Amino acid sequence: MIRFLTAIFIVLAAFASPVLAQDQTIQEVLQQHREVIEKSSRRTIGPAIDAIAASGLPSAQNVLQKWQSRDMWQRKEDGMFFYAEEVDSKTYTLYDFDSDTAVGDFAKGDLSQLKPNSGIRAVIGAALVQFQLNDPDPARRSEAILAIQRDGEASHLAPLRASIAGETDPDIKALKEVTERLLTISYDTDDAARVAAIQGFNGALSLDVRAVLNPVLTTTIALKDSLPDDANIKRRVIAGSEALPFEDALARMVAAGMMPAQPTISERKDALVANIQDGMVGGVAVADLADQDARDRAYMVLVSEGVVPEWDAGYSIEDAVKSTEFVEVYTEPSKIVTDAAEATLKTIDRAVGLNQTMDLALDGLSLASIYFLAAIGLAITFGVMGVINMAHGEFIMMGAYTGYVVQQIIPDYTVSILVAIPAAFMVTFAAGVAMERLIIRWLYNRPLETLLASFGVAIALQQIAKNIFGTQARPLTSPAWLDGALVFNDVLAISYIRIAIFVLAGIFLGVFLFIMKKTRLGLETRAVTQNPKMAASMGINPDRVNMLTFGLGSGIAGIAGVAIGLYAKVTSEMGADYIVQSFMTVVVGGVGNIWGTLLGALGIGFLQKGIEWLNPSNTLAAQTYMIVFIIIFIQFRPKGIIALKGRAAGD
After folding, report:
1. Which long-range contacts (CB under 8 A, 24 or more apart) does 403-407 make?
2. Does 20 have pLDDT greater than 70?
3. Could you state, in order of their start, the residue ranges of all structural domains in the chain?
4. Would you say residue 247 has pLDDT above 60?
5. Most C-beta atoms within 10 A of its C-beta, which of 10, 89, 371, 443?
6. What is the mean pLDDT of residues 588-613?
7. CATH class label, 353-650
8. How far is the C-alpha of 378 from the C-alpha of 432, rounded, in Å?
């Protein structure tokens, strides 16, 4: 009967305790631990802080925050705790923690300020984590989790786990789960839980995962005989290898007491000097110690007399360490944990390699887009018309400077770019038409003269640009919505400007195909290209078609200049950086074929990025290798990837 009544009492007490706790005030909790709080010892303060944090009272967080910031005060007359607001240097207003109301003004001499040391503040900070992780503001919860990821402690693990179940925001919950696994790897005492957490990161790309796994796999080199039987050994280490030079192996043996330290030549010399008596040392005159053998004989005499440390004349470091087994041992004692970490890091390395390949492919694609934009105009003037225009790069430069001038007039970068694209087309279209009418029309079918004349025009345009804009690089600023990058993970990302250039290249591919396939100008251009005399007999004016075609190619180069200017600095020499690649793109792809130009741009872009990846420290060498490769390619396929067929191919 007594046992039955006792059981009932325990059950009733269990149900009643939460009610009693809710009836309790935070001041009562503080008074229950008053002596511990007043003592403020790092070793004994834990129960008081735990009681405040576990009280469930709304004011508990405020108490801990005020205490941590040294803003909690105690009234001397009754030992009550408050937070205070300074009225003047001698007077403070005290506020009740439970009600947040002022209880009056008191002289500073009647109060004691609690000044927790750094150790106690750290304990309070750990207790505050549970409040921060359950803060009503999602932004504060995210900040708390990220802070734990940066500087986590074992004390954070329990409150973090407790907060996951009640998390309502799916993104924050996922962040909490990841952080919980990271802390589990570092601080959990259960090996099975650590292994499960490690395996949960298979293939993960986050740098935080590597930062946690790498310390698990740290190793040291030790003598195998000095280790316990259950030591977590990684591999055997050979003395004399790069990982363990002979000198290091010997030092480890001496430190372990396995052999005495042998005195060095310098130490033996000092010992001889210290034992000189009447011009003699070890029975040898000082004057006779000119060679090392004499000094060694004298030292051995001193060894036999017991006045200097022992030394073995036949001593060899290699012989001393060759019979000793050295191993690389994990600092982490659990083998299943290190095995899991090794396996997970292998999956991470594979995932990183795959994403690096994809990132390299994106870089190659974006570079190919730039080359295609730069070459698409040349594909018209050189590929279709057969005119070697060395001033094509300067038309790109003119387009970029046009965009810069427009931005000086229109400060809104989005509007200015939208205006700059057609403006650059009109400016360079007009310049192309003028060049064709004044120079190129007189030099058709004379490629050498055309090359020299256009090269002279290129030099003149560069000098004009220097005279107008100077030699300093000018910025062509992209709109704010093109800032930043599209980030897929910690390895894979691509800037929005590169994406915009890629889209622009696709648009102009479509525009060019539409013009050449669906418009009268395109039809006439193709007719003049294949047979100008027959086209003229059909009523087509070849001079007019050549003028418009050359202007179209120049205009597209101007638009390419605006796009490239967003990616690179605008200078008078910027065109020279793209003229060689533009010609290579057209020639490799196949002269006179827009699809060949596209394939040529892709091939050169991927090739250059691949060579740069193999030789990242020397960009100039990468470009040289690329040119050599293209020269070899042309030897085997002189007409390019897609060669013209039919009558035009023989012109």
Report:
1. 403/476, 403/561, 403/562, 403/565, 403/570, 404/469, 404/474, 404/475, 404/476, 404/565, 404/570, 407/476, 407/477
2. no
3. 2-122, 134-218, 219-262+318-331, 263-314, 353-650
4. yes
5. 371
6. 82
7. mainly alpha
8. 12
